[in-house]
Design brief:
The protein has 11 helices and 10 strands. The chain has 252 residues and is α/β, with parallel strands linked by helices.
């Protein structure tokens, strides 16, 4: 966070015409440093809940952009993990509590776990050592799975995390496609490329004179489900034709 504050202060001091930024810990810093420079967010979790906007239709401040998901997405993510590995009975939700959005993630996952007959285990972490200990403890319990919500901490550690999960032979689903490039089992979430393309349109409109507070926060229109057959086979998981038919991309 010290680096975030330093870089954000340097950015604001350069007095840009607009800023494109993402991250539940980054945006609050930028907001504190400037109430006038337009900020476009290509993936906000809950702009109303965290106070970045007074309404989705008219944010009213210097921030606008696109939400990264509907809150119910984590229920769908958990349901997909259960379809991938039907035997799981408890799922660890690994998150960094410094990210204010995780309060929303945690509540949604807990609500979805009951109907799926799955115990939700909240695991707050700040670095890889804590992730390593948590995953090792989880591997000692039978029928365990892992869900990683979107977070800068875990995305930065994606290679180490995917390798760790593979060693401990745990089914896991991720909320960022970067984990799939590292060899992860499954991803479900919005099409990030589409969100950034649409954000470019907002930046263009702001540079042409429109106010960020007048541009509505929009929700994703495209979602992706990606599954890695090779990773599934390594875990001894048999993926049904129905599940594979749901996938937008199958990695072999």
């Amino acid at each position: 966070m010290d680096r975030v504050w330093a870089e954000a202060a340097s950015l604001i001091a350069s007095n840009p015409d607009a800023i494109l930024a993402t991250g539940g810990r980054v945006i609050p810093v930028l907001v504190q440093l400037s109430r006038s420079i337009p900020i476009v967010i290509p993936g906000a979790s809950d702009p109303l809940g965290v106070g970045w906007a007074t309404s989705l239709a008219r944010p009213g401040r210097n921030i606008t952009g696109f939400t990264s998901f509907e809150v119910s997405i984590y229920g769908k993510t958990l349901a997909l993990l259960k379809q991938i590995a039907p035997a799981i009975t408890h799922v660890a939700f690994i998150y960094n509590p410094d990210n204010p959005n995780t309060v929303i993630y945690k509540r949604t996952i807990e609500d979805a776990a009951g109907p799926l007959a799955v115990e939700s285990i909240a695991v707050p972490i700040h670095g890889f050592a804590e992730i390593d200990r948590a995953v090792a403890a989880l591997a000692d319990r039978q029928n365990s799975g892992v869900l990683f919500p979107g977070d800068l901490t875990t995305i930065a550690l994606r290679d180490e995390i995917v390798a760790l999960i593979a060693r401990q032979r745990l089914p896991a689903i991720y909320s960022d496609p970067a984990f799939m490039r590292a060899g992860g089992l499954a991803f479900y979430g919005p099409d990030r490329i589409d969100l950034y393309r649409r954000s470019a349109g907002y930046v263009d409109r702001i540079l042409r004179g429109e106010k960020a507070g007048d541009l509505p926060f929009q929700q994703p229109t495209k979602y992706q489900f990606i599954i890695n057959i090779k990773a599934a086979k390594a875990l001894g998981l048999e993926l049904s034709p129905t599940l594979l038919a749901l996938a937008d991309e199958v990695i072999e």
